[in-house]
């Protein structure tokens, strides 16, 4: 990550939890390491609403010390959320690290004028970061080595471009940098955790997690208020611009409407199509969404 604060927090976790083994259950030594980490972060006092408002205003003005304090004083909540996902097969230290990244994002985006307590807002970002990481982990362990190598190159290229551009690169910038055809980069993107990652920016947008908003009724930040209803109406209108088959593929793949997200094989069986056809249909549908002016207009609300 390019965020210095995330790096510092992750290093701190690694220092106190370096003895934790990568396994489903935490050993006694791992528990001791976690206890030391919890002891370290417990020295940061909880903030009241007035203090959060002051810090949020300073953060909006670029105050890094205020950002660090707001994050540090809420690290214990990340641990609480991460513990709920221990059964998903990832080490607790990794879940906490991912949750901390979500916490930093929330701290940077928090709007104190809305009247919400910070952690009520941040818990959405923490949970989404953890769930995204879990999904990526489960998908990655099933990939052949040649695909893993390509995805590693993709991530390396993405990181280098982000440093150069000071923002996430677009798909066109990635394909040009990697000197690969669009289809190959799309293939790596589709297997790197988020099919044709809509977290990649659309043109100049810096952050566009459209899929997250489209797939989870609770996915919009909790301070969205009455704008939610109109937002979801727009989502349905946009989905209707896709073909019925593409709509069905996306709804099944991402669990739209409250269902459980399905793998390509499951969708293949349900729709009577090959897994490869389903994979390409998802790529095609998501590409169409990325190019729609309606979707680009929606980004301003995220």
TrEMBL record:
Residues 94-107 form the RNA polymerase sigma-70 domain. Keywords: DNA-binding, Sigma factor, Transcription, Transcription regulation. GO terms for biological process: DNA-templated transcription initiation. InterPro entries: RNA_pol_sigma-70_dom, RNA_pol_sigma70, RNA_pol_sigma70_r1_2, RNA_pol_sigma70_r2, RNA_pol_sigma70_r3, RNA_pol_sigma70_r4, RNA_pol_sigma_r2, RNA_pol_sigma_r3/r4-like. Pfam families: Sigma70_r1_2, Sigma70_r2, Sigma70_r3, Sigma70_r4. It comes from the Bacteria. This is RNA polymerase sigma factor RpoD/SigA.
